[in-house]
Amino acid sequence: MTIYPELSDAFITERLTHPRSGPLPVILDTDTANELDDQFALAWAVLSKDSLNLQAVHVAPFFNEKSTSPADGQRKSFDEATAVLAALGENSLPVRAGSEAYLPDKATPVESPAARDLIERAMQHDPDGPPLYVATIGCLTNPASAILLEPEIIKRIVIVMLAGQDFEWPTAREFNLQQDIPAMQVIFESGVPLVHISAVRQALTLGLTYPEVKEYVKGCGTIGDLLADRYEQQSNLTPGYRRPIWDLSAIAWLINPDWAVSTLRPRPRLTEEGYWSQDFFGKPVRQVVQLDVSGIFMDLFARLAELR
Q1: In CATH, 22-305 is 3.90.245.10
Q2: Which of 175, 171, 180, 95 is nearest to 144 (CA)?
Q3: Which of 26, 119, 137, 294 is disulfide-compatible with 247, CB 3.0–4.6 A?
Q4: Can you give the pLDDT at residue 154?
Q5: What share of the chain is helix, strand, coil (3-state, %, to 5)?
Q6: Would residue 274 be called left, alpha or beta, if left means φ above 0 and alpha means ψ between -120 and 50 degrees?
Q7: CB–CB of 35/243 below 8 Å?
Q8: Would the pTM of this model clear 0.90, i.e. be above it?
Q9: What are the residue ranges spanned by the domains of the chain?
């Protein structure tokens, strides 16, 4: 059984208070080829240099109709992340391959360059100083493995996570969570400082229409054309349809916490069946309760417009 460092509620609460000064050191962990929202989130993070210091991109596995296995999903996401960064002219930003399999259980890590890179970068941060922020917009395999391999990193990082549902929802399950439930259990049970964004109640509100894409995304440099192309390929272009760009939510809290109103709550246990248990740990978690959709898209569009 993994022994995690004991973090006080006061320490966690301090870590979960946004410093409102930047740029914040950030790693983005993404399943980039799974949908089209990861590409938007990665582009926004790179373009927000006044607020974020994106240090590396870590690639998560995924398995659905777009991949033949978690390993195939990871490899496709690696290629897609590289393509997005090339379109942004960020060819020197490190991209690290993540796990090619999910955790077999909540005590067993999966080795990967991404997990080792997270450990190396986290250990450069003093526990008494500013943390490293890890924005996770795919399954939690890579950061969970890093925590299992080196539990001391929970003193040095804050995870900003889009996964699961609100604690009162009938089930915790959604794509990111159910891909690797043991990894999600590690995140909650380790006590690592955690900002939690739910899928349906929060991230689903970040809808983007095709007319908006044509007007405010397409033509905004190479990256704007890439994002518009991904939208056209993967979305319903019928007037009135709004495609959720879920993953912007994690970047939004990092750039401006006023766009992601949140509250501190006790963290629950996650059962192996994918439900939130009312057996609360007592360790605080910051849960986002409302997103400023207008503020988020206005900022994204303004940054893209600078590339015209």
Answers
A1: yes
A2: 180
A3: 137
A4: 98
A5: 40, 20, 40
A6: left
A7: no
A8: yes
A9: 22-305
